[in-house]
């Protein structure tokens, strides 16, 4: 159970990455087929504006998600290193106190 809660903090960013990937996959596989269909010009224009917003927003969302993931990884590594230093310090203190007790 510890494993799943540890990585739960990454889920929102990973979901954003997957949504951006899915959007661009659909776009590559035939997203422009809308232009070939016989729809009303206002409907086509509205759809194109919505797609334009997604095209502009997707790289921004991608960059923010990647930055968030790397920030969380870096923080987790820093905490892990800090925990290791604390353990080393604790071991050194206990070794010093043990040697002080043996001298007395």
Total helix count? Answer: 3
Taken in chain order, the helices and strands follow as: HHH
Rg calc: 26 Å
Shape: rod-shaped
How much strand? under 5%
Helix content: over 70%
Major β-sheet profile: none
Overview of the structural elements:
With 104 residues, the protein is mostly helical. It has helices at residues 2-6, 11-28, 41-103. The mean pLDDT is 83.
Task: Supply the key terms.
single chain; 104 residues; mainly alpha; 83% helix; rod-shaped; membrane
Q: Short description, anyone?
A:
The protein is mainly α and 104 residues long.
Walk me through the topology.
Layout: H1 2-6, H2 11-28, H3 41-103
Keywords: Membrane, Transmembrane, Transmembrane helix
Transmembrane segments: 12-35, 47-70
């Amino acid at each position: 159970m510890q494993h799943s809660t540890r990585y739960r903090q990454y889920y929102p960013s990973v979901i954003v990455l997957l949504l951006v990937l899915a959007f661009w996959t659909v776009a590559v596989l035939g997203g422009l087929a809308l232009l070939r269909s016989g729809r009303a010009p206002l409907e086509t224009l509205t759809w194109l504006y919505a797609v334009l917003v997604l095209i502009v927003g997707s790289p921004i969302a991608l960059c923010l998600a990647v930055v968030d993931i790397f920030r969380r990884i870096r923080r987790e590594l820093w905490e892990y290193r800090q925990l290791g230093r604390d353990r080393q310090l604790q071991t050194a203190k206990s070794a010093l106190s043990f040697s002080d007790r043996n001298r007395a």
